[in-house]
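An instance follows:
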Amino acid sequence: MNKRIIEICANSAQSCIEAEAGGAQRVELCAAIPEGGTTPSYGTVITAKKFASKIDINVIIRPRGGDFLYTDTEIETMLSDIQMMKQLDIHGLVFGCLTKEGDIDIPLMKKMIEAAKPLSVTCHRAFDVCRDPFVAMEQLIDTGVDRILTSGQQPDAQKGIPLIRELVKRAAGRIIIMPGCGVRENNIAQIEAETGATEFHTSARSAIFSRMIFRNENVPMGSNAVTSEFETVQTDRKKVAMYL
């Protein structure tokens, strides 16, 4: 039986440290998790490399939240970020680009993959909002992408089991299909058994409460704060271990 590979969606250098301590094989390092993840800072990546040196670090290349149709300025930003991240000797990069019709933007993906060489490339959940997942998978295989992160074009991977299973079947080992979004310790065995997937993407986070004594809770730092400013989330090594 193939060993289950766990990739942690890490929102900080400390989350990378926790993921490594919990036994995960890889992290996807992101900023702005509530927006679906954006490119983390240089400082975050270099700190993660320093203090979590044994775990594979994949960095998302995404200049903003929202859709995956990018302007020339945003493309230039992504290409510059790819070059910067390559200098840090990370394991891989995570990105995805669509046309306005909802198809894979093949010329742009090829350009970014070429810029990323020799790093591993994962197509993120832009795949989950593409028009035809089977056509998109074949296109991503042809462009040289190593894996696809997907919830099966559903709100979570458990609901997406039917499509994920079919993708794994059709991929036939040519590309890795990695279920993500809503993968939890209490459903990973089901997703694994019913899809045949061997790599899984999860957050394994716990709440971290502020050490602040003085608190002014009347001034939110975000325009649409949904949680307390005195509470954050972070990967929890104990939760990571539960997936293995």
The first helix runs from residue 13 to 22. The chain has a mean pLDDT of 95.
